[in-house]
Amino acid sequence: MLKKKKILSLIMTTVLLMGTLAGCGGASKETASSSAGGDKTITIWSHMDTASEFPKLQEVADKWAKEKGVKVNVVDDKGKIQDYIQAAGSSQAPDIMVGIAHDNLGTFQKAGLLAEVPSGFLDESKYNNKGLIDAVTIGGKQYGVPYAGETVALYVNKDKVKEVPKTFEDVVTKAKEPGIGLVFSINNFYYDLGFLTGQGGYIFKNTNGTVDPSDIGLGNDGAIKGFQFLQDLVIKDKLIAADTTDDIARSRFMSGDAAFFISGAWDAPAAKSANVNYEIVPMPTLGGKPVTTALGVQTAFVAEKSPNKDLAWDCMKYIKDNIEPIIIESGRIPATKAGVESDAFKKNKDMVAFGEQSKVAVPMPNIPEIQNIWAPGGNLMLSMSDGTNDPKTTGTELVKQIKEGIAQSK
């Protein structure tokens, strides 16, 4: 949730960011062309990974600038989201931002900082999941360009499990066997969402790109079914301790104490380092339905205050058309069908599994109200896991607390 800062602090932050724009500390690079049009400069702020992605984004921008005969200034920006909001509201706003999680777009759009995507710029048929387009759609209009996604899937210790179950019912049965086990951070609401939305629950109602924060589906019958499954893992099946954290879950899988582990690509390097003979697979079904895990989407956008929007969108198209080799190499899921079907992507078996799971994943709502679900979600999951609340009470109370949080944040 965005926190208010003192005015002086915001002014100082903005000054520092403007200094970054000027290239302080080697954080930016300006490529100039002596050909016609060289007096124009497009400024790009990047939140992509500094080591593996930023230099390659710089190369792509340089090639575009050379072709167009303009200047491009690419900045490795590490400011916080609220810092960008302050800077972007000034005349010194960057033309393009690359590497922003889609659930920040609603805050930016509400502040009037996002330029609407030109008609026809995004071809929905080319994307891996309609949700990727939904992720950049606010009020029925598109305000960003999706280029990568992330979600969670199921890690399996192949030394302990020879045949991966196709359903979570079978996962639970197998996990009860001696020495097998299932683990994940059950009170982290991000990991829980797929079990709720897969059964018919939803965070906020989304109708053709218009999200209604007053219509919350985390207490409906489908969500309660998901809550019941999660509570059973702790109380009935006794597979997961009520106080299991990310660190505990990770440690149990890496040590071989649990053979099934739900997590994202961020834990694959640790599994390799621990010499776990693992395989990552898409989430098995639950109740005959897909487990529609939460989808995070990396996006890029053009600033509403850009003085050169046409040129900025031309640069954006070039970035969009050339960004997938960068993200494939750095271990992200490409947004397009062509990207996930490419030979380069298929070389990484771990990411192929996440790519398959992303096809049924549901993007987190991109409106500011999304920030009101995490704290009550985690707290109420803990109360349900330890048996204080039943699933129905959990859903009812969660909806109530989210609505209260939204009202207080207005």
How would you portray this structure in words?
The chain is of the alpha/beta class and 410 residues long. The chain has two domains: 7-149 and 296-363, Periplasmic binding protein-like II (D-Maltodextrin-Binding Protein, domain 2, 3-Layer(aba) Sandwich); 152-294 and 366-409, Periplasmic binding protein-like II (D-Maltodextrin-Binding Protein, domain 2), CATH 3.40.190.10. 40% of the residues lie in helices and 19% in strands. The protein is built from 17 helices and 16 strands. It has helices spanning 7-21, 54-68, 81-88, 105-110, 130-134, 168-175, 189-197, 221-234, 246-254, 268-273, 309-322, 324-330, 337-340, 343-346, 349-358, 374-385, 391-409, and strands spanning 28-31, 41-46, 71-76, 96-101, 137-138, 141-142, 145-150, 152-157, 182-183, 202-207, 210-217, 260-264, 278-281, 294-302, 333-334, 362-363. Helix 8 crosses helix 17 (391-409). Mean pLDDT is 89; it is low at 1-26 and 32-37. Residues 1-22 form the signal peptide.
Quick take:
It holds the Pfam family SBP_bac_8. This protein has 17 helices and 16 strands.
Global morphology? globular
* Percentage of residues in helical conformation: 40-55%
- Indicate the radius of gyration in whole angstroms: 22 Å
CATH architecture of the largest domain: 3-Layer(aba) Sandwich
The CATH superfamily of the largest domain appears as Periplasmic binding protein-like II
Hey, roughly how much beta strand do the residues contain? Answer: 15-25%
Subcellular location: Cell membrane
Keywords: Cell membrane, Lipoprotein, Membrane, Signal, Sugar transport, Transport
InterPro entries: Maltose/Cyclodextrin-bd, SBP
Pfam families: SBP_bac_8
